[in-house]
Amino acid sequence: MHQAFDPSIVIFALLAIFVVWKLRSVLGTRTGTEKPPFDPFEARRKLREGNAARDAAPPEPGRGPGQVIPLQRGEARGAEAPRPAADPADQWRGLVEPGTQALDGLLKIGAADRSFTAESFMGGARAAYEMIVTAFAAGDRAALKPLLAKDVYDGFEAAIAAREARREKNETTFVSTETSLVHDAQLRGGTAQVTIRFQSKMISVTRGPDGAIIDGATDQVADVFDLWTFAREVDARDPNWRLVATEAGA
Predict the structure, then answer these.
(1) What DSSP letter does each residue of 139-153 carry, written as one string?
(2) Is residue 138 domain-resident?
(3) Which one of 78, 102, 143, 218 has the fewest beta carbons within 10 angstroms of its own beta carbon?
(4) Contact (Cβ atoms closer than 8 angstroms) between residue 157 and residue 139
(5) Does residue 222 fall inside a structural domain?
C-alpha cells in the first residue's frame, strides 16, 4: 500500500535551503585572494624575532647605547653631508713669491671679483708674457695694442720705431718660462694690480741692415728676469688684464 505524503518533509527541505542561502550571503564565498585571519600570537612572534635580530647585529659606528647621531641643519636622511668650503688661499699655494705680502692682496681681489682665480689668471699672464715679448721683437703693433696700457704701448711703439729707423731686426725665440710667481698684489679702489716675477729662457739676436748679427747669438740661451704689472677694473665687463708697468728683475 502507498505511504501517505508527509508535507513536513517539504517544509524542512525548504527551511534547510533557506538557512544555507542565508549563511552564504552573510559569510560570502572564498575566491582564493582572501587575507588570512589576524593572528595576535603570530604578530607577537614576528616582533620578538625582529627585536632579537636587531639586538644581535653589531652597532653602527657612533650608535651605541645612549648615543645620538645629530644631523646637520637641513640634512636629509641618506643625503651626503655638505663639504666644508675650501680655503681661498689654497689655490695660490706655490704661486706667491716667499717673503712678500702678495697673498693678502690676492684674497682681496678675489673677494671683489669672483671670476679671479689662480688658475685662470696665472695661465693668462704667462700666455700674455710670451705673446708680448714675441710681438715686440717682431714689431707687431696690432698684437701689442690690446694687451698694453696706453703709456706702456707708447713706450713699446717708440722702441720699435727707433729700431726700424736703424733698419735693425730682432729675433726672439722662447725656450721656456721657468717660473712665474706673484711678487705683489693690491686692490686700490676698484682697480686690481698684480705684479709677477717671470724667469724665462730665450734666444735673442739683433741683426743689422745687412743681416749680420750685431747682438746676441743663435746658439746662446739667456736667462731673463722681468717684473711685470697687470691691472684691471674689477667691475668692468672687459675680462682682459693689461700690462701697465715693466722693469727688469734680478
Answers:
(1) T-HHHHGGGB-HHHH
(2) yes
(3) 78
(4) no
(5) yes
| In-domain check, residue 23 | no
Domain boundaries, position 173? 97-248
The CATH code of the domain that includes 169 is 3.10.450.240
Q: How many CB atoms lie within 10 A of CB 52?
A: 10
Find the helix packing angle between 118-138 and 150-165, rounded to 10°: 30
User: What amino acid occupies position 80?
Assistant: E
Radius of gyration of the CA atoms of the chain, in A = 45
The total of structural domains in the chain comes to 1
Per-residue pLDDT tens listing for the chain (250 residues):
455 555 555 555 555 565 545 445 444 444 444 444 444 444 444 544 555 555 555 555 444 444 333 333 344 445 555 555 578 889 999 999 999 999 999 999 999 998 999 999 999 999 999 999 999 999 999 999 999 999 999 999 999 999 999 999 999 999 999 999 999 999 999 999 999 999 999 999 999 999 999 999 999 999 999 999 999 999 998 889 999 999 987 6
Kindly state whether residue 121 falls inside one of the protein's structural domains: yes
Whether the predicted model's global pTM rises above the 0.90 cut: no
